[in-house]
């Protein structure tokens, strides 16, 4: 969950805050576990909280293009790829980033991503399209 929160926020401290706020649902765990899939519930809360942050604040998230000093090197040797992904995500709007993390990072369908974000499938499709390199619709151009 922390990895997904970092991908959404681009900042370790904000990611920790997002995870902490998400885990405040702990008082309802008995009902969540009895209802079925607790992972899906917590994941949905995480994304909903993230979306609420940028909707409420109506500000551009500041995502660091360079990894912080405390980044642990990727054991698989894909550090260059990880930095490239972080930089690419930093250039997207929070909404585009959330959609791409759901679609690519968690390998969810457009319908599942739309359900988690509380939007239409068409919005998910348009955000994926707008987040592609060379689309000319990202904030960095």
Name the average pLDDT: 76
Structural class: mainly alpha
Shape: globular
Tell me the helix content.
55-70%
* Radius of gyration (Å): 15 Å
Q: Which sheet architecture does the biggest sheet show? A: none
Number of helices: 8
User: Could you list the spans in which at least 5 consecutive residues all have pLDDT below 50?
Assistant: none
The counted number of beta strands is 0
Q: How much of the polypeptide forms β-strand, as a percent range? A: under 5%
N- to C-terminal distance: 30 Å
Order of helices and strands: HHHHHHHH
SSE order and pairing:
Elements: H1 2-9, H2 12-22, H3 29-35, H4 38-57, H5 79-90, H6 94-105, H7 110-117, H8 121-131
Model description:
- The chain is mainly α.
- The chain is built from 8 helices and no strands.
- Helix 1 crosses helix 2, helix 1 (2-9) packs antiparallel against helix 6 (94-105) and helix 6 crosses helix 8 (121-131).
- The chain is globular, with a radius of gyration of 15 Å.
Search tags:
single chain, 141 residues, mainly alpha, 8 helices, 63% helix, globular
Describe the structure concisely for a colleague.
The protein is mainly α and 141 residues long. The chain has helices spanning 2-9, 12-22, 29-35, 38-57, 79-90, 94-105, 110-117, 121-131. Helix 1 (2-9) crosses helix 2 (12-22) and helix 1 (2-9) packs antiparallel against helix 6 (94-105).
């Amino acid at each position: 969950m922390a990895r997904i929160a970092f991908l959404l926020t681009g900042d370790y401290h904000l990611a920790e805050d997002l995870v902490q706020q998400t885990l405040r649902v702990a008082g309802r765990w008995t009902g969540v576990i009895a209802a079925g899939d607790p992972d899906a519930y917590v994941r949905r809360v995480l994304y909903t909280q993230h979306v609420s942050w940028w909707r409420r604040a109506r500000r551009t998230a500041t995502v660091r293009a360079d990894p912080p000093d405390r980044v642990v090197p990727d054991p698989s040797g894909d550090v260059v790829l990880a930095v490239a992904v972080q930089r690419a995500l930093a250039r997207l709007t929070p909404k585009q980033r959330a959609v791409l993390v759901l679609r690519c990072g968690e390998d969810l369908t457009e319908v599942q991503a739309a359900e988690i974000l509380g939007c239409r499938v068409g919005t998910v499709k348009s955000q994926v399209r707008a987040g592609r390199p060379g689309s000319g619709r990202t904030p960095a151009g």
